Amino acid sequence: MKMYLVMALRKPSFDSAAIAPHLAFLDELAAAGQLHLTGGFSDGSGGAYVLKNVSGLEQAEAIVARDPLVLHDSSELTVHEWNTR
Questions:
Q1: DSSP string covering 29-69, please?
Q2: Edge-to-edge, what's the strand order for the sheet holding 3-10?
Q3: Cα(21)–Cα(68) distance, integer angstroms
Q4: Which pLDDT score is estimated for 32?
Q5: Are 38 and 25 spatial neighbours (Cβ–Cβ below 8 Å)?
Q6: The pTM is what?
Q7: What tens digit of pLDDT does each residue of 25-84 get?
Q8: CB-based contacts of 53: which residues, under 8 Å, 6+ apart?
Q9: What pLDDT does 30 receive?
Q10: Which backbone phi and psi does 5 adopt, to 5 degrees?
Q11: Is residue 1 predicted with pLDDT exceeding 80?
Q12: Measured between alpha carbons, how far is residue 28 from residues 13, 23, 40, 63 in Å?
């Protein structure tokens, strides 16, 4: 199964108002069976989440484009196809 690692690094203009909608977004992904795991970095610089059950990189990128962290322009998100073992 292919998984997609999403790295979210906070921008200097990070708006904490994006946190609650972001967590709700992650809950929606989990309910849809598309979230494998998620968590924040201990240094407060951002976090990551892993998508599963998506058809490919294009779909993963489309999902990430809906993340409130992106919509609020609070974090830089990158998506990587992850070859896990």
A1: HHHTT-EEEEEE-TTSSEEEEEE-S-SSHHHHHHHHHT-HH
A2: 35-40, 46-51, 3-10, 75-82
A3: 6
A4: 98
A5: no
A6: 0.94
A7: 999 999 999 999 999 999 999 999 999 999 999 999 999 999 999 999 999 999 999 988
A8: 1, 33, 34
A9: 98
A10: -85, 125
A11: no
A12: 26, 9, 18, 11
d(CA 34, CA 28): 9
Q: State how far the Cα of 4 lies from the Cα of 7, in Å rounded to an integer.
A: 10
Determine the distance from the C-alpha atom of residue 78 to the mean position of all C-alpha atoms in its chain, rounded to a whole number. Answer: 8
Query: What's the burial of 31, exposed, middle or buried (CB within 10 Å: 0-12/13-18/19+)?
Result: exposed
Cα–Cα dist 53/40, whole Å? 22
